[in-house]
Amino acid sequence: MSITNDYDDCAAIVATSTTELTLFEIYCVKSNTLQGMKMQLNVSAVDTPKKSASWGAVFSMSLCVAMLIAAEFLPVSLLTPIADSLNATEGQAGQAISISGFFAVLASLLMSTVAGRFNRKWVLVSLTSLMLLSLVIIAVTPNFAILMLSRALLGICIGGFWALGTAVIMRLVPIESVSKALAVMYTGQAVAAAFAAPIGSYLGAIIGWRGVFWVLVPIVIVNLIWQLIALPSLPTNERQSFHTLLTVLKRPYFARGIAAVVFAFAGAFSMFAYLRPFLETITGGNVVTLSQLFLALGLAGFIGSWAAGKFANENVIRFLQVVPVVMGLVTLGLLGFGHIVVVTALLLAIWGAMNTAMSISWMAWLSQNVDDAPEAAGSLIVAAIQGAILLGAGFGGVLLDYAGIIATFSGSIFLSAIAFMLVGSGKRLLKAA
């Protein structure tokens, strides 16, 4: 490019981002006048180092996910002893799960705004520290009210972490490795889903329910130290606002995606929340059989994490289409063949793989289509997921109480079908090129 002789005293200023040279700006001021011009040249030929992946940080986040999921759902396997110890009913003790979900919704919506311009490393470290505090409070809680307080704190950790998780992953690894990194992070979810409930139930009978939560404490301390060492500094210059959230939500493709997310997760959890009553009444298995079936479901989650991590980045729409269809068909299969234990085990394994693939696929979709506002989008999608889980469980519970388990599973199929229709061909879920 040439500059006319009318301009001199040119100053070249290089603007850089945190990872690469992005812009070359030339300011030329016309001699002896107040006129001037500014030209910007994209520099594509400059050799810049590629972003290096911080896999140690990614694995530390995976362990954090495992601890969050374990802490969130341990009360499911310890419900009766918790209720007996705190002089509460089982229904009241069950609200310890609901309260964490409610605060997770609030935290996911507020986190990117409240966190402001704080370095994201220290936000994540603070959330992990809050999880540690909540576990200690649960372990020593003297009454039901303090238990609910500790669960509210845990809900804040859950919502806050998931709201920032995908955006942080996108900053830790190159764009082509995002799906793989998400799969690593969600492996923590698969581990907790597979082992937390059966191990919690077993240890609870030996060391008591409080002891189970104490077991988590040193693991979280190790995770906290790991994060301090492995997480790089993650400064941010932008402060999200509710206006930012609304602006992102007003994007038609994103709003449609959020609607599909709600129906997909509501469909999944309106079935999953009431799987045990189905297995007890239709499959008719004993406690050992039920534990084995749940273990098969959880272990299959590793397959779903691997598949989504390997293939979702290049086939995200196909995953979003296939997952609700397969989950709906599995639920239909359970209605038809749920009395056969071997078939039930196979179907639950398929469902478990789809369950973990569903989360990774939607986060991969977010990373590709809202890469300009990942924290705002992350807040919205996590709120949608947490809200869908609560709504799905409530919807399934109403059907169970008034129409029975067959109606509950039928309702799950209906919700999954709506999710598939909202995804459609996938074209309306993609940002403009």
3D structure, described in words:
By secondary structure, the protein is mainly α. It contains 14 helices and 3 strands. The protein has a 3-stranded antiparallel sheet with strand order 1-2-3, with no helix packed on it. A hairpin with a 4-residue loop joins strand 1 and strand 2. The longest helix is centred in the middle third of the chain and has 53 residues, at 178-230. It is globular and about 55 Å long. The two termini are 28 Å apart.
Backbone CA Rg: 24 Å
Q: Strands across the major sheet, in which order?
A: 1-2-3
Structural class: mainly alpha
Poorly predicted ranges: 1-50
Q: What is the total tally of β strands?
A: 3
Portion of residues in helices? Answer: over 70%
Query: How far is it from the N-terminal to the C-terminal residue, by CA?
Result: 28 Å
> What letter string, H or E per element, gives the SSE order?
EEEHHHHHHHHHHHHHH
Shape: globular
Largest sheet: 3 strands, antiparallel
- The number of helices is 14
Mean pLDDT across all amino acids: 82
Strand fraction: 5-15%
